[in-house]
Amino acid sequence: MLIELRDISKIYTVGAEEVPAVRGISLSVPEEEYIAIMGPSGSGKSTLMNIIGCLDTPTSGSYLLKRREVATLDDDELAEIRSSEIGFVFQTFNLLPRMTTFQNVELPLIYGRSARSDRAERVWQVLEAVGLRERAQHRPNELSGGQRQRVAIARALINNPSIILADEPTGNLDSNTGEEIMQIFGELNRAGNTIILVTHEQYIADHAQRVVRLHDGAVESDTSV
Amino acid sequence: MDFAEILKSSFRTLWSHKMRSSLTMLGIVIGTGALVAVMSLVAGLNRSVAAQFQSVGTDIISVSRYPWVQVGDTEEYRHRAHITEEDAEAVERLASVGLVAPNIHTRRSISYEGTNVRGTLVTGTTAEYETIDNFEVEEGRFITDFDVERRRSAVVIGADIAQELFEFMDPLGKDIRVGGHRFVVVGVLKEKGDILGSSLDDLVIVPFSTFEKSFGHRRSVVIDCQPAEGVTMRRAIEDIRQVMRTRRKVPRDEPDDFAINTQDDLTSFYTNLTGVLYMAMVGIVALALLVGGIGVMNVMLVSVAERTREIGVRKAIGARRSDITSQFLVESILLTCVGGLIGLSVGAGLGVLVRAITPLPAAVTPAAVALATAFALVTGLLFGVYPASRAGRLNPIEALRYE
């Protein structure tokens, strides 16, 4: 089992009040699964995503990633995991504006401490996979929305992560381009990548094999197609 | 993240904000430029003055009534007893003392066939004065023991006097009047130059005995001497001090009522004087760097705030806190070091310019370069630490949400 969440809770303390964002969620995700996490705003899906992506730690509960407990790791250890196991794709792309496509995609490798000689080859590989070899020297402002997201996907893939976490990946794209991007995710899943999609749109979630619905910080339903 | 990558990325960031980087650097440029220029000037001045002092004579010990550098109660000096020829003889008898030249001074007019030079230093002394006080004869000879013994009216004239009275003529053998008295020129001295502005060549030298005969006895003698071969300055000075105190009956618990001067006194006086000035200048420059540093910190804080989202993204893709902190710290240090380099060049260039155009000597020393570099580095480090650590401590989730 790739991901095992057991009784995960996240409580935010706002002043004197305690706000539970996630309440006792248990979830297991096997390798190569294509899963969508759905829910309205306030359902806790962003918080859950942050925990799964090791951007945040739960207040209580256990999170086994590849059989390793990550719920209690410190900042540096979490960063390590993010570097090697997680690939993020954001709604707003989040590319570094002053860097070229190549440099943006290369960045995780630099943080992962790869040797310079190995990096270039890998970058070209993933650029090829998303069809952006010719745009390697362009800056984000010279790319279309769809192209930017593809750069982001390439960046997410570069470290060979265990999980690809996509947060509303088509939210800033028109429906045609959005569909192209969803196609890429489909291909990636068929190639063996585990994909966790977070969305509030039904037609996006429909691309996945399994849909977990959240409501008020807890799992409402968990259906496999 | 390895250092080369951090450096490249920092360069890229500073370069993409050229205007902002340049303006921020300005404070550092001015600070380090001023530092280097001031240090160069002072170093050059020190060197020049040291060279001037050299011409006085390096191991001379001069015993006189007043010290060369007068401090404090100068009223007290007036009451001191004269130093006498007998004192000079007593000093000469000391084993630790080598050559001794008693000398005695006044100011008189010098004239030759209608041309007159006023207020010239007239020195009466012995043959040893030439060696001890570092005089060199250009033409003819110096005063000899024979001159002193026989009270001859021989005079050795300084370069200025030769120039003023004789211009292109040969002064040797000519009769001149020193304070009205007739003297024959037996030697002309080599030019010595200036010391702190006053000329060392506006003088004439006559035998000690003749001086007393012509200008009277009632003056204090100055005893110029050197340590004997193989004896340290300190040893000789101590022995002289003892002899003088005994002869003048200075009580044990009272200070000397005479002065023993050495060249070191001059140099240390000058160094103390300029030392204070120097410290003040360095202080002002440090202040400039402080202001420049605050500017750097300000810009870095703005930069961190601007790039909050970017920091969030970097953390999301695997950057650790230390990766972020070191990135911003390097940017800060790069800013100040590049500014420092520019400032250094400007300051050095200024120094070279000053030396070329003005009589002021300026010398760019390695100490100035090292200090400027160190200041720049430390400023970048000190003022970059706070913004960099703020950047490192950003929560990635909040940072990603930042507009």
Question: Any descriptors?
Answer:
heterodimer; A: 225 residues; alpha/beta; Rossmann fold; six-stranded mixed beta sheet; 29% strand; B: 403 residues; alpha+beta; 2 domains; two-stranded antiparallel sheet; 57% helix; elongated
Characterize the structure shown.
Chain A is of the alpha/beta class and 225 residues long. The two termini of chain A are 19 Å apart. Chain A contains 7 helices and 10 strands. The longest helix of chain A has 16 residues, at 175-190. Chain B folds into 2 domains: 3-52 and 267-401, no CATH class; 101-226, no CATH class. In chain B, the strands form 2 sheets. Chain B has a 6-stranded mixed β-barrel with strand order 2-3-10-5-7-6, surrounded by 4 helices. The radius of gyration of chain B is 33 Å and the shape is elongated. The two termini of chain B are 27 Å apart. The relative contact order of chain B is 0.19. The mean pLDDT of chain B is 87. The interface between A and B is medium-sized, with 25 and 23 residues.
Helix fraction bin of chain B: 55-70%
Order of helical and strand elements of chain B: HHEHHEEHEHEHEEEEEHEHEHHHHH
**CATH fold annotation of chain A:** Rossmann fold
Any idea what the radius of gyration of chain B is? 33 Å
**How would you state the average pLDDT of chain B, rounded?**
87
Mean pLDDT of chain A: 91
SS field, number of helical segments of chain B: 14
From the 3D coordinates, which CATH architecture of chain A would you assign?
Answer: 3-Layer(aba) Sandwich
